Amino acid sequence: MELVELLILCFFLVLGLYGLDAYRREQRRRFILKERMPKELQSARLALSESYISTDAPRKMHGALDQFYRLTDGVHVLVDTKTRDQQRVYRKDIVQLSVYSLILRRNGYKVANYGYVRAVSPEGINYIKTPLLNDEETVWEYDRTEQVLSKKVTPMAAEHKGMCASCPQQINCDQWRFASGQ
Amino acid sequence: MKKKKGYLSATTIAQRSFCEKQMILDKRFGKQETDIQRQRKERGDEEHLRHHLVARKFGTPRDSRCFIATELYGNTAPQTEALRVFRDSRLLTCLPGRLFTKVYYDVSPSIVHLMKKSPTTKKVIKFVIDRIVRRISH
Q: What is the ipTM of this complex?
């Protein structure tokens, strides 16, 4: 009789654990469905979220990444959320992700040479796969920023007229592209 | 994000690639924002927080520590990484594997404690884990 009771107890214990597991899987399935995540991220594990990262070498840089996933093969992938009217990736997004990637590699992580921009717009959510800059190009971006900030080089204006259209510094800018009908 | 002296932030480096002039003007006159940009920023911050909370809950936020392997080989050792890959690709893909992982996370801190106290226990466990690592690495 004792054995039967023990077996029943074990049965309900396993059933309970299975129920909990099934509930969790269902919640996760809904999350993935809503997110429309790429396949490789669906099986990945979230390693870091909204985390502060920094490095001293090759240059002193820091940042706060959005999400960082570890794929099943051990490689890590960065995800950065951008809330915009249009679902598109700008060069500044690639630079930002590349800086995070360099910092994380310096911290011992194996990071993929691409990342995802999680574009959130009125159309919905879309994960846009983006190739990243290599370390040399990222260091060049850092050095150029430092030179501009320390006034060692003359700052250049935006490349396209469209970039100036919504610039909040229009009033202070002598190179604002609408000023002289450029 | 906290400001660290002498460090350049990823956002600053990224902004330079958009417009160097704006970066300098921001530094000189302070950051300016139009109403639309302020609204967008608020919307963005809200979305970041919402997604952070949801991703932590359902983006497989389970503890990723391999306690025993970390104690035996170190956190970034190839053996620890091999065990992590095995856990993610094999164990977590089936119910018995997930149950085993759950039980493992419950009992492993006690085993690690025992290993720290008794070098003999550590030797025995290392012998077993070495064989497992060798087997799953092939």
A: 0.80
